[in-house]
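re: that chain from earlier
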Amino acid sequence: MSTLWFFIALLVPCIWGIQAVMLKFGIGEFPPVFMVALRFLLMLICLAPFLPRLKGCFVRASAVGLTQGVAHFALLYIGFQYADVTSGMIVYQTNAIFTLILGSVLLGEKLTRFGFAGTVVCLLGVSLILGLPQQNTSVLGLVIIASSALMFAIGNICVRKLGPFDPVGLNAAVAMYAFPMLLGLSLIMEQGQWVALTQASLPAWGALLYTAFLGGILAFILWYKLLAKFSVDKISPFSLLMPFFAMIGSILILEEEVTAGNCIGAVITVAGIAIIQYGVKVQTWLKPARVTA
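^ sequence. v structure.
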């Protein structure tokens, strides 16, 4: 992985981590699933001209839309209704583990020892950043969030298995499949949609725009490019950095305090990514040169 792609792989969890902070301005005023439906509507409006790029691939792209678009986001937001953010974010990080396991089983991609070790180190760091689960968390909520993480991982495998796709066209297709289905779920499960549309504040609309254009369009296009270019054991562990960037965002935007444990966890998490990225290179560098006769 070149330096450019490495920084792109860091940019995606950065955008998604800050998105978790932005959601605090939106979820309180929009019904959760309705907000996600609006997110995909805005994405579809912007990306509809790129749908022809997926000509002949719409059936295969539907698997990504149903898993990573509809099921993933619906379960994620429903789950967070029954779980606190800290516990939910810890459980959601299992998406990287699910992706690594499914990539090894279904795609035959080799799970290197550095990929596995780095992922374990990242999970340790994430746990320190987020702390222990809260007592007011429902086990059902955590199970639903874990199911969301599994659907995100299955979507990753679909991208690798059924592709290559044009990243912009794929993102447009996911929005096309996800918007009507999520809107239908919202109309069945939620209420107050019209009130939210007419009375939401500017910060709430700003949060919606962030999740649509940065979190939904830019980040996912880059993510799909990464999945098309690199094996899942190289890419999925970067998603574990989301809580790290969410912590930074909460400090800068929400002015929340950070503990020593948070800082230690951040260092450990970055170390895990370093193991994944540079483990083989360091091993080669440390290995004594073979003496030729």
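Residues 202-229 form the longest helix (28 residues).
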